[in-house]
Design brief:
Ubiquitin-like (UB roll); alpha/beta; 8 helices
């Protein structure tokens, strides 16, 4: 069972020079260590919720597994903050390629990858899902309505797996990358095809975020925030539609607008 992802602290709130003793709700940071084949692989600082989905999505994103069938056994020790994963296959040099820096080009384009495992796992998305302006606004509004912990604390990121019409499953975490790993892990765990899905996301669209969406095989990424230049270069190369600053009745389409219904 997941641990509480918020706690309460006594604070002194100051407004217009007046001090008031209050209880404030604060998000919890939780260190989670993933052990693969009895070897400590990584420690993630996260919110203590949906830990199984987080670990599965993280391992898939790092290229350690390709499907849930690669996992022989899986156990969680929430008290100590450990997840133990046994794979059917024994891996050599587990950490070497994950942390190895790699910058290269592909097919004459400007694609750049920071790490070798990104080269292995990033996907060019070919599915032509179509979404309308109105659906973009509706999905982001649904995500906002699901973001109850953010509204209470202001210290959390939110993201959701969607069809082009509705939210399927939303997740929350202190780390924006963790949110995407939880979505990925949920899809792998439940054998959900991602090529016709949409990701709605609260955070900035960085290159790391874009690559995680690519690894899922999703062709449309919606966000209320801004993208970075490298993220947009990668989105162009990987055939991903990025839509940012979705707020009120305004949005910016940055890449691959062919998936956006104009009429």
């Amino acid at each position: 069972m997941d641990q509480p992802i918020t706690s309460f602290w006594s604070i002194q709130k100051v407004e217009n020079g007046i001090f008031e003793q209050q209880k404030d709700e604060i998000v919890v940071e939780f260190p989670l260590t993933i052990v693969v084949n009895q070897e400590e692989f990584a420690t993630i600082v996260c919110s203590p919720s949906s830990l199984e989905e987080l670990a599965i999505g993280f391992l898939a994103s790092e290229g350690i597994i390709r499907s849930i069938r690669d996992i022989k056994s899986f156990s969680i020790d929430e008290t100590r903050g450990f997840i133990y994963v046994e794979l059917h296959q024994k891996l050599q040099n587990l950490k070497e390629n994950v942390s190895k820096r790699f910058i290269g080009s592909c097919c004459g384009k400007s694609r750049q990858f920071y790490f070798y495992n990104d080269v292995k796992t990033a996907k060019t998305v070919m599915k032509k899902v179509i979404i309308s302006f109105e659906q973009c606004f509706q999905l982001m509004e649904q995500l906002k309505n699901e973001s109850t912990i953010f509204h209470r604390t202001g210290g959390i990121h939110n993201g959701a797996l969607c069809s082009n019409e509705k939210l399927i499953k939303s997740f929350t975490d202190i780390g924006r990358h963790n949110v995407l790993d939880k979505i990925y892990g949920f899809c792998l765990k439940n054998n959900i095809y991602m090529g016709d899905k949409v990701i709605a996301f609260s955070g900035r669209i960085s290159s790391e975020v874009l690559l995680k969406v690519s690894k899922m095989g999703c062709g449309i990424l919606l966000s209320k925030s801004a993208p970075t230049d490298l993220a947009l270069q990668l989105a162009n190369d990987l055939n991903i539609t990025t839509v940012g600053f979705i707020r009120g009745n305004k949005l910016n389409i940055y890449t691959h607008d062919e998936r956006i219904e104009k009429s």
